[in-house]
Amino acid sequence: MLQVAALTPESVPPQTLHRCLQIPEIILQVFAEVALQDSPNATLAALARTCRVFEQPALEYLWADPGLNTLQYILSCFPAGLFADSAHSLLSRDIQRSDWARPQRYCNLVRTFSVSHRVTHKQLSALAPTCPEIFLFPRL
After folding, report:
1. SS (H, E, C) 18-43
2. What are the pLDDT digits (tens) for 86-113?
3. In the chain, what are the domain boundaries?
4. Higher-confidence residue: 6 or 57?
5. For the whole model, what pTM was predicted?
6. Which of 12, 2, 67, 70 is nearest to 34 (CA)?
7. SS (HEC) of the chain
8. In a 10 Å sphere around its CB, with 0-12 CB exposed, 13-18 middle and 19+ buried, how is residue 41 labelled?
9. Can you give the pLDDT at residue 1?
């Protein structure tokens, strides 16, 4: 089972959820079952948007193994207008540290990185010099 460090009894608001959903182990078991579905991503994304208590465990499962398009998904998290082309290989401006806020959050959740033929050296070269961390995907 995936370990979700951010979910503790103290992080579950007592009056906003049914009593059974105030138990972190039950929440984690629900997400583990959802993750076993044939196509769990839409459900996990919806659960992540449902409430703060569900957000972190849903994102942990959603981003643990994003599939062959991992880098494309990360690139799409950067601010609009940063890339001059739809392939995300040409920058329209320098990447600022603040541009990394959302992509880095998701990079930190990735546990499996798969590469498709669409990943180019240009894309990785554009990110590498500005990455705020030593590793783009620290949990690999």
Report:
1. CHHHHCHHHHHHHHHHHHCCCCCHHH
2. 888 888 999 999 999 999 999 999 999 9
3. 9-64, 70-130
4. 57
5. 0.81
6. 2
7. CCCCCCCCHHHCCCCCCCHHHHCHHHHHHHHHHHHCCCCCHHHHHHHHHHCHHHHHHHHHHHHHCCCCCHHHHHHCCCCCCCECCCCCCCECCCCCHHHHHHHHHHHCCCCCCCCCCCCCHHHHHHHHHHCCCCCCCCCC
8. middle
9. 54
